[in-house]
Every structure is written in C-alpha cells, then in structure tokens.
Amino acid sequence: MFSMLLNIGGEPVRVYMHDDPHFEEIAAAVALVDHGAAQFLNKYCRMGELNLGAFGGPFDEHPDRLTGQQRKNGCCLTLVAEALGLEQFPWWRELIAFCHFADMGQRIDGQRHWAVEVRHPYDPYNLLKLRYRKLRDEARRAKIDLSDEALLQIFNGAMEDVRLLLWKQKMYFLAVDEIKAYGRCEDINGSNGKQLKLVAITSDNWQINVAARSWFHADVVVQRDGAERVHVFTNQKADISLSDLAQMLNLAEQEAEGFVHMTNWKTLRAEGAIEDGKWFYLFQFGQIHNGTESYPDTPATLLSNDQILGLVKIALDKSYFNPEQSSQCRRGVCNSRGVCDCPLHKYGLQRCRTIRFDMYASRRW
Known about the structure:
Elements: E1 2-8, E2 11-17, H1 23-35, H2 38-44, E3 49-51, H3 76-84, H4 93-104, H5 124-142, H6 148-182, E4 184-189, E5 195-202, H7 208-214, E6 220-224, E7 230-234, H8 243-257, H9 265-268, E8 280-282, E9 287-289, H10 305-316, H11 326-330, H12 350-364
Helix pairs in contact: 1-3, 1-6, 3-4, 5-6, 6-7, 8-10
C-alpha cells in the first residue's frame, strides 16, 4: 500500500493507492489537488481519507469479489474526472483519453484507438513503470529495503510530468483562441491548381504552429514572435517545397539591408543559412526560421508582414508569373533579361529557370 497526504480543497487528505501507483492514478491525484473543492470533500472525503484505484470506493475501478462490485466503466482518472467535472477543461481531454486507453486498452467511446493513445515504450505511462522497476532492481541488488522517500520522489516527479503535459495542452488551446481572435486565415494558390490554407499571426505562443495545422487545417503557417523574428512552417502532408521562398527571403533581406552580396540561386535556396544571413532553411522539415533556439541572437528580419506574405504567395503559387509577361511565360517563352524587364527575374524561381533552360536546350538542338 502506498499513501500520502494531498492538499485537496485546502484540506489535508490521506490518499491510499496500491504500490507503485500507475500514471492514471497520479494524474487523478493532480486533478484532485488542482480542482478539488469543498463540495468534493463533503461528498467523498468526510473522514479525511480517500482511495484511488484500489481498496474499494467510488474511484476504484476494479471488481470486488467480496462485495460483488463489477468493474466500473473507466479508469481511476476518468472516474475522478467525472466527479470533478473536468470536461469543462479542454486541456484535460487528451490526457484522460490516453490514460483510459493505457489502462483499459480501448478508447473512451469503445472504438478503435487514436494514434495519440497508442501505448509506446517511451510514453509517460511506461516510463513511470520503468522508474519503479529500476528503483526496485537497485534495492534488490543492494539488498536494502525501498525507502518511502524514494517512492515519494518518483510520485512527485510524475505529478510534475502530468502538470507539464497539461501545460502543453493549455498552451495549445490558448493558441487556438489567439488564432481565432487575431490570426489572418486565407486560402492561397499552390501548385497544380491546389488551394492552400494560410494562417499568419504575431504571437509568442510556441503551440501556434501545432494549433494552426490541427485545428484550422493550415498548410502554411507564418508566425512573427515578440522579438519580431518570423517563422514559416508547413504541413508536411501537403508536400510543399519552400526552396523558392528561401531563395526569395534571402535575397529580399539583403536588399532591405542595403547591400546584396549573394545572388547565386543555389546558395540562396540551400539548406541552412547563407553567410551573415538571417534565415535558416530546414529543408527536411519544410520550415524557414528567422533565428532558432540554437541561434537566439539572430537579428530580426527587416521585412514587413505584407512583404513576407507577398513572397510566400508568389513562391508557393507555381503558376504565378509577372502579369505583364505571364502569357509568354505560360507558353514557355522568357524574354526577360533582368529586373528591368521582369521583377521576378532576380529571384531565379524554379519555374522561371525551367523555362529558360528548356529554351536554351531547344536552341542547342
């Protein structure tokens, strides 16, 4: 038996659990500490004691042969969540769903599991079990008894893990609210006539990218943070190449600084950053960052939001050409000899270079 005092609704309550409490029982303890109130205490903790996941009572889901109690439809956390009304807090939903699946092997609605609920060897549920096993193995090898302090340290650490996961979810739903209130959401042209969903916003919330893609189904996310640095993300399922955009941003940034020292298109669109550049192109992940956590001192871009979004739209719309020459471009003819003829010529976009290469190749033959 494992027990500890928890502060629930401002009162100390002795909580009893089985040895090596599971992750869902520790999550239930966090829920009680964070959301338990006087009404809960009066209903479930009149004697200053409470059982979680064992020893009978409303929050023990296991069957009891002595009393004839059938297994409850849920795990310890789902039972506690129902008693506390946690459905009003959306950041609890994913954790409750995960714990339910980890404990019972099925979704809350009885259907097939979600990908997020699949138990993985490195998920928090199994990592907690590994901590217990390692601790017991070390004690067995040393031929010593486990101390309550060591077990309590694991329990408290797991409670912090739960709160960390909940904080992540809170930031996600705050990001959703930010995008709804302040975000710019629009459809833009992609390649082959495909429409792409763009979300642009100024925010320091690190969950903006995730929220924009999952909640708003964004294909492209442009986020300017509080330090005026800009980050471009893509949904990798949309198979979007940012190479033209990297090329355009690197050149436009040099022009904004007043000195262009690099015009080679292969260098401008290469993965990483150009010399003294402000933009980092992560080709593998479909992202471009004006500074990263590894390079926090990167100066903020001089380009405005409108300039950046304008470049994004041109780079991703592979059918876009300068309107004055577009009819010739679509016929596969490029008569431009520089920026005076066509403002896009300087960028060396892939679509433009393909046209010029094909023209050159046909003349050779």
